[in-house]
User: What shape does this take?
Amino acid sequence: MPDNDTSAPAPRRRRWARIVVVAVIGVLLTLIAATAWMARPEHLSALVLERVGAALDLEITASGTGEYRLRGTPMLAVRGLVVRQPGARAPLLTADRAYLALPWATLWSGGDDLTVRRVELDSPQINLPALLDWLATRPKGGPLRIPTLTSGMRIVEGELVADGWLIDRLNVSTERLQPGKPLAARVRGRIRSAAATVPFDLQLALTQPAQGAGVGVAGIATVISDPWRMPLRLQVSGVLRDDDDGIGLDVARLGAHVRWFSDSSVDKPTLDFAIGLAGRLRHRDGTLRIAPVALALRGRDALPEKMDATGTVFLDEALALHLDGELAEWPATWPALPVPLGDSDAPLPFALDYAGAADLSGQTRLHLQRDDVRFDGRFRIPDIAPWLAQLATGTPLPPLQGTLEVPRIELGGATLTGVRVELDDAGAHGMPGAHAPAPDQ
Assistant: This one.
């Protein structure tokens, strides 16, 4: 009897063996099918872009795949990238080509891990209003989640489109981006608006990519508005803010060495000076505001050696500027002020207002007053610069219109009272409109 019982488990062992074999074959077939599915570029790109989009609450699609790699760190290059906020009509980003390398851990984290090895964008176009709309939907009360780019980022020939202006030929490169860590980047491009074109090449530094970070910018730029151009070597610093009144800088400071060429074809600058600005800078709804702003100008030759002022600046499709300040002293190269206006060595107060085209081609209003002597005038900055350049050999009368009111003035040994002088650059040789009572005896 015992010999007959020893053969009973054999059929069961064979049955379990068949089950194991079938299971292994099923797993292998599943792996083969999954590998074949993953090996198709459109499936891999859809997976990667869906994972990245889920992490950022964005819809990310691409019309074509250029290349991909699964071994090591997954890499994907796609063509025709489109990124939009769910439900939005306009995409916030498009690009001819996008390169993305990110670890498997990031792919499978469901948005918890934002570590990326490298990002590259060729010919991207960024829609600034759409981007700001998306940023406004991000969770409040906490820091904006910044991805870690362990091998940095590169943007080639990009374009940033805003209301009334754009930046084209945009090139950005950085070796690393990490939350809470300093960031350094090089930014090149060209700002374009109806008023001017501004090519620039700047080095950007942040104490960290976050709200409240310290910002430093240094480099060169040239403001071009035919026929004049204005090269600048500049430095900017401040504290990064994104508040209800817009994106910008607190404690913003700008220092620049400026050369003004009144004719774009000449090599010698018409004016050469240094300028400093300090204030609170914000950009919102297409308007750049610096309010309040403090200004310091240090000139030479035909410009004041020292001029300080405070006021406000608003820039969108037009420019609105108001300054209240004083000249430390009247420049020696300028036409002498009449007595008694020219007798005093005290600083000369002034008020300056401009509202017009952003290229400064409109009229600027100027108010000067010392005691009972006052001047109210109008001039165009593009006319003043050439006049300042020719003071040594040309006409001493400035290209302006205005009224000078003097209670008492001495001319040629005579004393005049209640003097009112009308100046008009169109007839400056005769100063039409001048009037004065008879001299005192």
About this structure: Residues 24-39, 427-441 have pLDDT under 50 and may be disordered.
